[in-house]
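Task: sequence design from structure.
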């Protein structure tokens, strides 16, 4: 492996450590090395929102080691920011530190940056290169790119099913189809999300918490409940997790809304056709709240509505080596009149997780620049 590739892989590994801890900011890693690339001087990754970005953490680390970064090369997985948000511009901090070269994976899609960080570095005489680790960095930040480019979160639908595609028995019993390893892996994907979404049917039938318990997380992701008639019980287990609860309704029922708001829920009315919640408007609202990745764990009816409206980007599927026969399926939409109407997917990963099989599949033509 070339030294440049080695250092960028180190930066990408650092960026991965920010998953579940830095929402809604992108996951960024940074490594500062000597100009000849032979020795590391400092490293860091994005901290919680409002705290230091990766470049600042790496500069602090170098200072703590007593290292001089003048003329050094900086490997960073996203363009250094150029705007004043909760923190100051990272590009200015790098210029002030006197670094000589910046190697970045990607241009920041945020319109407030979008090449301005690179421009300010070059104007100060810093050499800028881009490209190494681009695919990995984009995959790590697919939700951030989606929100910046499309104004929508990246929607990932998680489903646990038997090999014949059943998510529950006919009587609704579903615990547990998959094994402990798959459940722990699912919690790691919850931790990655900016919010977890479910429907009122799941709340009423299973009374789930839908929080992260089996994976490390900086803060619990908000829970989104699609509840057209405000039927969420104020005593539901979902209120026990100590995280924001956002309920979207189609009807405004004052007593029910007051009871839920009394439990700390934020209730938003977004009426759509047929007395249902406008799901497309819901996604736009979540993006406005800073949600990059939306993790869906719902029943086959809400799953079907999201798929039918073309709102799902990716499927996270766990298949158990079991056959359940007649039961409840994964996604309820259709029936289709012809095969050409099928939702076309591309497999991106197939991997055993314990005794089960995890399949990642992206909806075709979901790319955006």
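Answer:
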């Amino acid at each position: 492996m070339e030294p440049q590739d080695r250092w960028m892989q180190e930066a990408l590994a650092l960026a991965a450590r920010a998953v579940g801890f830095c929402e809604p900011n992108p996951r960024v890693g940074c490594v500062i090395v000597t100009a000849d690339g032979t020795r590391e001087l400092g490293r860091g990754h994005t901290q919680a929102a409002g705290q230091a970005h990766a470049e600042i953490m790496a500069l602090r680390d170098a200072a703590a080691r007593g290292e001089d970064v003048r003329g050094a090369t900086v490997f960073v997985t996203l363009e250094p920011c150029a705007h004043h948000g909760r923190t100051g511009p990272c590009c200015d901090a790098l210029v002030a530190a006197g670094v000589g070269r910046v190697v970045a994976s990607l241009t920041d899609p945020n319109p407030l940056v979008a090449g301005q960080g690179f421009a300010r570095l070059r104007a100060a005489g810093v050499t800028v290169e881009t490209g190494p680790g681009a695919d990995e960095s984009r995959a790590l930040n697919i939700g951030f790119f989606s929100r910046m480019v499309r104004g929508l979160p990246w929607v990932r639908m998680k489903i646990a099913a038997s090999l014949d595609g059943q998510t529950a028995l006919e009587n609704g019993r579903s615990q547990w189809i998959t094994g402990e390893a798959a459940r722990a892996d699912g919690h790691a994907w919850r931790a990655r999300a900016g919010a977890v979404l479910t429907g009122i049917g799941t709340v009423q039938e299973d009374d789930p918490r839908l929080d992260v318990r089996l994976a490390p997380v900086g803060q619990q992701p908000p829970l989104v409940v699609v509840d057209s008639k405000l039927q969420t019980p104020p005593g539901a287990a979902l209120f026990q997790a100590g995280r924001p609860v956002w309920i979207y309704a189609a009807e405004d029922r004052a007593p029910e809304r007051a009871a839920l708001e009394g439990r700390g829920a934020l209730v938003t009315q977004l009426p759509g056709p047929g007395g249902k919640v406008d799901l497309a408007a819901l996604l736009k609202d979540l993006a406005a709240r800073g949600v990059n990745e939306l993790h869906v764990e719902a029943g086959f009816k809400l799953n079907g509505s999201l798929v039918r409206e073309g709102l799902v980007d990716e499927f996270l599927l766990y298949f158990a080596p079991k056959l359940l026969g007649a039961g409840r399926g994964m996604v309820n939409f259709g029936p289709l009149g012809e095969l050409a109407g099928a939702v076309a997917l591309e497999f991106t990963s197939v991997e055993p997780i314990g005794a089960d099989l995890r399949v990642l599949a992206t909806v075709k033509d979901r790319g955006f620049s």
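The chain has a mean pLDDT of 93.
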